Amino acid sequence: xxxxxxxxxxxxxxxxxxxxxxxxxxxxxxxGLIGPNGSGKTTMLNIMMGLIKPTSGTISYFEPSQxxxxxxxxxxxDGMTVLDNLKIFASLKQLPISQVEQVLDLFAINFExxxxxxxxxxxxxxxxxxxxxxGNYKLMLLDxxxxxxxxxxxxxLRSAIEKRRETGTSFLIASHVxxxxxxxxxxxxxLFNGKIARIVSLKDFENDFLSLEKTYLTLSR
Length: 221
Known about the structure:
By secondary structure, this protein is α/β, with parallel strands linked by helices. The chain has helices at residues 41-49, 82-92, 98-106, 121-132, 151-166, 178-184, 212-220; strands spanning 3-12, 15-25, 30-34, 56-61, 67-70, 139-143, 170-174, 187-192, 195-201. The chain has a six-stranded mixed sheet with strand order 5-6-7-3-8-9, sandwiched between helices. A three-stranded antiparallel sheet has the order 2-1-4, covered by helices on one side.
């Protein structure tokens, strides 16, 4: 088991955003996290990264230091080039600068000399993903990773995820793009009103007329 989440709850003032959430992420597994806006997906990822503390519950990791994430396009310096921003991340992760060149090729980034603040939303998203893929981590947390990406970039991301899984990386991916999750995920967690409504295996869909979209519509009703 890479991560075990037990009875995680989170309150913001008087509002309960997460309510007794329990699930796990296994070795070499890709798990999708699905739910409407405000269901608690990003809050769950932020808790798993240690950015905020849960009100109650526990999270256990097989290797706590082996986690990487892309949950927003924040944390970059607008006045610095893409390359210099990524070098800072490499330094923070205690990685050699050669790692930067490798991930630039991974997402076909050819604008590394441009200042981050002058990039389009899609280009910023690619840079955010690039820093997450620097280094060989056991667990990667991705929040809406296809936001603002064009078709080529989505295909590059899918390929990067599949290649990293082959080398032993597990993923937890929060996304509204259900067709993309169906292509890569082993399991999917449906989160409604801060609670896990259902956990499904994508293998269950192979010989049935089920899909993530149909399951979501059924649960949302």
